[in-house]
Specification:
CATH topology of the largest domain: Jelly Rolls
Radius of gyration: 21 Å
Strand content: 15-25%
Largest sheet: 6 strands, antiparallel
Strand order of the largest sheet: 1-2-9-4-7-10
CATH superfamily of the largest domain: Jelly Rolls
Number of domains: 2
Number of helices: 11
Helix content: 40-55%
CATH architecture of the largest domain: Sandwich
Order of helices and strands: HEEEEEEEEEHEHHHHHHHHH
C-alpha cells in the first residue's frame, strides 16, 4: 500500500497539493475559484483531515477498476464513470483510494464566493449555505459544464474572461440549487429596466470590443450583479452576453476585411479575438466562410 498523503492544504495552488498523484495540464483562477485540469499518472491513496475550501472533482475519463470514495457519510466503491463528480464541502472528512490514472477537473471554491453568489441570486440565505457531500454522482448538467471547462482549459481560454466567468457562475448556481442542504428560494422575476440600461450595455461592449471584456466589468458598470446582468441581457437581447460579443467581433472583422492590406492577425487583435485561429473559428461558425473566403467574394 502506498503511503497516505495529506492534501488540500492550500486552496490556492492545488497543483502543488496533488503532486505526485497528478500533473496540472492547465490552470485558471477567477477571483475565489480555481479550476485545474489534471492528469493523474499514478494510482494512490489520499486521506484528508481538514482544509479551507470546498473541492469539486469531475472525472473526464472512464475507469474500469475499483475506486473507493468516502466523503463524510457518503460512500462509493466501484468504477468511476466518465462525467461523474464528487464534492467535498469544507471541513468534511475525505478518504479516497484509486487503482487507475484518470483525467480529472478540479475546482477549489472559496466559501466567500458561494456566499456572494447566493446573495446576488437570492436563491439561498448566504448565512445558511451548506453544500452536501457527494461521493459519486452522475449529473448530465454537471458533466456538460465540466466538458466546457475542459475545452476552455485545453484551448488556452479562447472564449475569454466573459465566457469563463459565465461558466463559473453557472457551476456555482447549479451547486446552490441542487447540492445545498437548504432548498433554493424561488427567484423573483426581473423588473423591466430602462432602455437606457440597454444602450449603456451595448455602448460599453462596443467601446471595449478590442479588449478581453470581463463579465464583472460590464455588470459593475451597469451597477448590477453578474447573475442578474446575464439574465437581464438575455431577456432583452435574446442571446447571452458572450454570444452577442462574438457576433459584434465578427461584424467588426467583416468591416476590416474590406481593407485587403490588413493582415488577418491584425484584424483578429483589433476585433478582440485572442488569435488569428480564434477569429477564423468564430468567423466560419457565424458566416459559413473563412475570413479569406469572405474577403475574396
Amino acid at each position: 500500500m502506498q503511503r497516505q498523503r495529506d492534501i488540500y492544504r492550500s486552496p490556492i495552488h492545488p497543483r502543488n497539493i496533488y503532486e505526485p498523484h497528478s500533473v496540472a495540464k492547465r490552470t485558471s483562477q477567477h477571483g475565489l475559484v480555481m479550476s485545474e485540469l489534471l492528469l493523474a499518472p499514478h494510482t494512490g491513496i489520499i486521506d484528508v483531515s481538514s482544509y479551507t475550501a470546498h473541492a469539486l472533482m469531475i472525472t473526464l475519463s472512464d475507469t474500469s477498476v475499483r475506486q473507493v470514495n468516502h466523503v463524510g457519510d457518503q460512500v462509493f466503491e466501484g468504477a468511476f464513470p466518465g462525467g461523474a463528480f464528487a464534492c467535498t464541502p469544507i471541513k468534511t472528512p475525505l478518504y479516497a483510494s484509486w487503482e487507475s490514472a484518470d483525467d480529472d477537473l478540479l475546482f477549489v471554491i472559496q466559501p466567500e464566493w458561494l456566499e456572494k453568489l447566493a446573495t446576488e441570486t437570492g436563491q439561498v440565505n448566504p448565512d445558511r449555505i451548506e453544500l452536501l457531500p457527494v461521493a459519486m454522482k452522475q449529473d448530465p448538467q454537471m458533466e456538460t459544464l465540466g466538458r466546457l471547462f475542459q475545452q476552455e482549459l485545453l484551448n488556452d481560454s479562447l472564449g475569454g474572461s466573459l465566457y469563463y466567468e459565465s461558466l463559473i457562475n453557472l457551476l456555482g448556481i447549479h451547486l446552490l440549487r441542487h447540492y445545498c442542504a437548504f432548498e433554493a428560494k424561488p427567484l423573483n422575476e426581473l423588473n423591466g429596466l430602462q432602455g437606457q440600461k440597454r444602450q449603456q450595455a451595448i455602448a460599453y461592449i462596443h467601446d471595449h470590443l478590442g479588449q478581453d471584456i470581463s463579465l464583472n466589468a460590464i455588470a459593475t458598470y451597469l451597477e448590477m450583479s453578474q447573475y442578474h446582468f446575464c439574465r437581464w441581457f438575455k431577456q432583452v437581447m435574446g442571446i447571452p452576453p458572450y454570444e452577442y460579443v462574438i457576433q459584434q467581433r465578427v461584424g467588426c472583422a467583416k468591416r476590416l476585411l474590406k481593407d485587403k492590406n490588413l493582415a488577418l492577425a491584425d484584424i483578429a487583435l483589433q476585433c478582440g479575438f485572442n488569435s488569428q485561429s480564434h477569429l477564423i473559428r468564430h468567423f466560419k461558425k457565424q458566416t459559413g466562410l473563412t475570413p479569406k473566403q469572405y474577403r475574396d467574394l
